[in-house]
Amino acid sequence: MSHDLFLAARDAMAKAHAPYSKFPVGAALRTAEGRVFSGANIEIASYPEGWCAETTMLGHYVMAGGGDIMEVAVVAERMARITPCGGCRQRLAEFGRPDTKLHLCDESGIVETTTLGAMLPLGFQGDVLK
Ligand code: THU
Question: Which of 35, 74, 113, 126 has the maximum number of C-beta atoms within 10 A of its C-beta?
């Protein structure tokens, strides 16, 4: 069942714009309604201004109206098992839940499944800002 989410992430990875790092990354999420949103990393010549696959994915998700995120898959072309960077852990934690599944993938499929909560223990909570 989750293999199709991996495939969506891998399809997204093929669209990565990563001419500087040459490190394509893809990410995909599924909502409770079964909607799937994906994204790839996009780099620009001013290096710090590029952004991650997870960020592109979340942009598509937000613009489409959001929803409860049930699972997320991430894959990188040149890594046996990618884990999201710190900033993306925070982004994912804000839109998902601690028990949202996170599938860490290689180019063939899911290698390990963890949760957003396990990826970001003691993460910053924005509740006080509301
Ligand atoms: N990258 C992602 O897309 N997601 C991550 O979680 C880790 C890093 C991208 C950013 C940059 O385009 C490339 O990988 C190398 O850092």
Answer: 74
